Amino acid sequence: MLMMFQIVPMMWRPQRPSRIVDMPAVVNTFWLRKGYEGLTFFGHILAPTQQEADRFNAGEKGDRMSAAMKNHEMIHLRQAQACHDSWLCFYLLYIWYWLKGLPMNRKMKHAAYLLNPFEMEAYGRMYDLSYLKRCEHGAQEWRTYARMSSKQRLQIYKNNHK
User: Fold this and answer.
1) Residues of 74-107 as b/e, b for ≥16 C-beta within 10 angstroms?
2) Are 67 and 129 in contact (CB under 8 A)?
3) d(CA 85, CA 91)
4) Is the dihedral of CA 37, 55, 52, 40 positive or negative?
5) What is the side-by-side order of every strand in the sheet holding 39-41?
6) pTM for the full model?
7) pLDDT tops 80 at residue 77
8) Is the model's pLDDT at 41 over the cut of 80?
9) 146 CB contacts (<8 Å, ≥6 apart)?
10) Which of 25, 40, 105, 111 could connect to 56 by a Cys-Cys bridge, CB 3.0–4.6 Å?
11) Cβ atoms of residues 85 and 79 within 8 Å
């Protein structure tokens, strides 16, 4: 299990997103809130348990859900490539959109997370296992969501989750 002092090196000298082919899953309970299965962290997938890490690492060789979960996190890698090939730019934008979405939490639980443009693309494409091949140089769909208002994104979310 990785503790706080063990993940600092991942942040200190991370590889550029374009140089990462596959993100390994490692166990870390420090950064993950209850209920979350994984988190993309500077070229690694943080998982709350060894069982979850094993599911991520199985990827396409595992069941459909394992493949979709891995695909979701790998879409975040492609998004970081689209953000000037920079983890820092990706995380700053991610936090910016999350903060902008906080007022929507009054209308829907976890709206700041679920209506984040990066998450909307990742959740919307996670079961499309060929998506990563089509966006080899960076996933760009999040930009379309980013141009929408929070209310428009909420409406899309509701339409997709009826």
Assistant:
1) bbbbbbbbbbeebbeebbebbeebbebbeebeee
2) yes
3) 12
4) negative
5) 25-27, 44-47, 39-41
6) 0.90
7) yes
8) yes
9) 97, 117
10) 25
11) no
Spatial separation of the C-alpha atoms in residues 24 and 93, rounded to whole Å: 23
Q: Is residue 53 a contact partner of residue 26, using CB atoms and an 8 Å limit?
A: yes
Token pair of 137 as six digits: 């140089």
51: which 2 tokens?
């069982």
Residue ranges covered by each domain of the chain: 4-160
Q: What is the C-alpha to C-alpha distance for residues 32 and 47, in angstroms, rounded to an integer? A: 7
| pLDDT tens by residue, 101-142 | 999 999 999 999 999 999 999 999 999 999 999 987 789 999
- Cα–Cα distance for residue pair 37/56, rounded to 1 Å: 9
Residues in the chain, how many?
A: 162
Cβ–Cβ contacts within 10 Å for residue 156, how many? 15
Specify the amino acid at residue 41: F
Contacts of residue 32, defined as CB under 8 A and 6 or more positions apart, other chains included, come to 38, 39, 46, 47, 48
User: How many other CB atoms are there within 10 angstroms of residue 117's CB atom?
Assistant: 22
Query: Which residue has 């208002």 as its token pair?
Result: 149
Residues 60/129, Cβ–Cβ less than 8 Å: yes
